[in-house]
Amino acid sequence: MSSPVPTRPLHLAVALDRPDARDAEPYARTARLAEHGKFDFVTLGDTLGPPRRGESRLDALAVLARIAPVTERIGLVPTVTTTHTEPFHVSSAVSTLDWVSRGRAGWTVEVSTGEADARHFGRKPAPPARELWQEADEVADVVTRLWDSWEDDAEIRDVATGRFVDRDKLHYVDYQGTAFSVRGPSIVPRPPQGHPVIAVDATDSLPRTTAARRADVAYVRVEDTADNTAAPAAVRAVRDELRRHARAFGRDPGRIVVLASLRVALHAAADAVALADLAGAWYADGVVDGFHFRPENPDRDLPLLVDGTVPVLQHRGLLRSFYPGGTLREHLCLPRPANRYATARETA
């Protein structure tokens, strides 16, 4: 009989990326399999530039919006690039994904540093990476303000009086950033989660400030786990740095879920068990809060993860065997944020 799942749960996510896909069906199939394995969420990468020769490139947000109706519990986290895009549109698109998935949306913040991408859009040259991440930090900030621009009970839908919204519960964000300004309010009601989950790849040093200040989930990429001393030590160092910075920003450092992002290539059940051994050891040692697996071949590796790695972790009492709630925030044990404008109005 397996042990009870610990109070501090192990979190698992998996990437669905496959450069050869031409439509949403392969992604839907693997997302449903990941849901069967009780993964917290799936991710799907995206970039802004034109596809290379022989490469298929589908819009990650659109693909996961298509997957939402054919899944029930698993979280859906596309990559959204903040460079050359409008924060208002980012806010609306991610909010819409949260609505169509009934509270299972998130987004991974990314920037575009390539000059080719800049020429493709033709709006501005590619600034230095440090400036791009400063802009991304501001985008993440204004996006949450736009989500809060509708209070939860702003919609009236009173047919008799013809009133759809309570205007007193809509708010102008009046945000002025270094590269943009946004007045608001949003054109989409506040998302079911309040704030869909914000994720940042914090492997490199430049995004870590944004991760510490804004992220609910931070990834730390690990390309080689063969060195059982250096790899976990490096991940732990990033996790400790993120928590220190989060505390300096006035955040509860426990509110950042840090996931080691591992590239996996399994050919056999023994590999799946070995991966469970590694995950269990890193987790027990307090290195990370969980893992983001990046399968080399989703059709081969994901079934082995679901049928091999996951059951071993469940049997050892490290992983839950059911979804505790319906939203991604509930899967990650993160609270639903209060609406800043409603709180300010109530306080006043």
* Helical residue percent band: 25-40%
Our measurement of the CA-to-CA distance between the termini, rounded to an integer number of angstroms, reads: 55 Å
Averaged pLDDT, please? 91
Nearest-angstrom radius of gyration?
Answer: 20 Å
Low-pLDDT stretches are: 1-5
Can you describe what's shown?
This protein is α/β, with parallel strands linked by helices and 348 residues long. 38% of the residues lie in helices and 16% in strands. It is built from eleven helices and twelve strands. The protein has helices spanning 25-36, 60-67, 87-100, 115-121, 129-148, 208-214, 230-248, 269-284, 298-315, 328-331, 340-347, and strands at 11-15, 41-44, 75-81, 106-110, 155-158, 163-165, 175-176, 181-182, 197-201, 217-222, 257-264, 290-295. It has an eight-stranded parallel barrel with strand order 1-2-3-4-9-10-11-12, surrounded by seven helices. It has a two-stranded antiparallel sheet with strand order 5-6. Strands 7-8 form a two-stranded antiparallel ribbon. Helix 8 (269-284) crosses helix 9 (298-315). The longest helix is centred in the middle third of the chain and has 20 residues, at 129-148. It is globular, with a radius of gyration of 20 Å. The termini are far apart.
Task: Describe the structure concisely for a colleague.
This protein is of the alpha/beta class and 348 residues long.
Secondary-structure map:
Blueprint: E1 11-15, H1 25-36, E2 41-44, H2 60-67, E3 75-81, H3 87-100, E4 106-110, H4 115-121, H5 129-148, E5 155-158, E6 163-165, E7 175-176, E8 181-182, E9 197-201, H6 208-214, E10 217-222, H7 230-248, E11 257-264, H8 269-284, E12 290-295, H9 298-315, H10 328-331, H11 340-347
Parallel strand pairs: 1-2, 1-12, 2-3, 3-4, 4-9, 9-10, 10-11, 11-12
Antiparallel strand pairs: 5-6, 7-8
